[in-house]
Amino acid sequence: MEIKKKYRKLKTANQAEILRSHQRDDDFVKHLREKVIDVLQIIEKRMGLLPLIHSDIPFKLIYYFFTTGMGNQTLGEEYTGIVQANLAAQKVPSLYARVLAVILECLGEKALIRVLKRLELSINHPHSKLTPTAVIFLNSFIQRMCTMIPTFILVHKGLFYMFGRYYSLGKRISGIDYAKVYGHRPTDTISWGLRLLGIATFAQCLLKIWQSRNNESRFEKYLTVDEKHNKLMCQLCLEKVPTTTTPCGHLFCWFCLTDWLNTKPQCPLCREHVVPSRIVYVMNL
């Protein structure tokens, strides 16, 4: 009850205070990373940890573990006089919510895009059992997702600039906001400048969406123009005129088809079982 009464008296932190807090935290993380690099250079073990050093993620996880994860203020929050709070429920965020917010902020977007890239590699692997139609569909879907995820996060950032609630998507998912607990509020009109920045961010998102659709329409137009040409080419190498047919009626060039059947006794398109001795070289094609 005491906590609830206390949070009813608190004011929501504005955009400027939240941005200053995160900027100060980012500066400390960069400073921490530089110090660790200096230490590793002295003990001559830099090469073994080089992939981790190139990223700020391990240092962010360590920093937020000892601050947010343990229920303490970060340096930026202490500097601006704000604390993390679940304003909707009028209570201190739970440990689960704080940990979830940290993981999503540090790993969310990059981890998801990395998973999509790995999925794309497995889809286009030569030994993949997917049909060509499925490969084309999944590649198109993954490319759209890789474009939409950064755009969606940019839209969320624009919402923060406009309304000052939920600094990141991870904070919104975990239900964590910021409350002002001490210190003076800024007297300048930066909040209106940030709202203008939010409008510009939305305009940038619309331009990105329009550009991606324009690129897709150009690509589809290119495919339509070359559709007849592609039908006259081998469906495996897309370079030579098909001269060989399978029993199921699909055409390929001789070398591509024989190489394929030596690996898999299946038609590359319909996956029907094909014995190499049953392919037919078409002379009058």
TrEMBL record:
Residues 234-271 form the RING-type domain. It is a multi-pass membrane protein. Keywords: Membrane, Metal-binding, Peroxisome, Peroxisome biogenesis, Protein transport, Transferase, Transmembrane, Transmembrane helix, Transport, Ubl conjugation pathway, Zinc, Zinc-finger. Its EC number is 2.3.2.27. Pathway: Protein modification; protein ubiquitination. One of its GO terms (biological process) is protein import into peroxisome matrix. It catalyses: S-ubiquitinyl-[E2 ubiquitin-conjugating enzyme]-L-cysteine + [acceptor protein]-L-lysine = [E2 ubiquitin-conjugating enzyme]-L-cysteine + N(6)-ubiquitinyl-[acceptor protein]-L-lysine. Pfam families: Pex2_Pex12, zf-C3HC4. GO terms for molecular function: ubiquitin protein ligase activity; zinc ion binding. It is found in: Peroxisome membrane. GO terms for cellular component: nucleus; peroxisomal membrane. InterPro entries: PEX2/10, Pex_N, Znf_C3HC4_RING-type, Znf_RING, Znf_RING/FYVE/PHD, Znf_RING_CS. PROSITE patterns: ZF_RING_1 (PS00518), ZF_RING_2 (PS50089). CDD domains: RING-HC_PEX10 (cd16527). PANTHER family: PEROXISOME ASSEMBLY PROTEIN 10, PEROXISOME BIOGENESIS FACTOR 10. Belongs to the pex2/pex10/pex12 family. This is RING-type E3 ubiquitin transferase. It comes from Eufriesea mexicana.
